[in-house]
Amino acid sequence: MHEHLVIGFTGWEGDTLYNRDGNRDMVAACVDKIEELKANGYSSLVDPCPNDLGRNIDVMGETAARTGFNIMFAVGVYDEKYAGAYWKDKLATDPDAAAYLTEMYVREIEDGVGSTGLRPAVIKVACGPGPFPRHEQVAMEAAAAASVATGTPILTHTEGVDGDLQLDYLTSRGIPAHRVIVGHCCGNSDHDYHSRICDAGAYIGFDRFGLEKVHPDSERTASLAAMVNAGYTPHIIVSHDCVFNLRGQMGSKERVAAAHTRSPLHFERTIAPRLRELGVSQSAIDSMLTDNPRAYFEGVTPEQAKRQMAQGHSIGS
Question: What is the domain range of residue 176?
Answer without folding.
Answer: 4-310
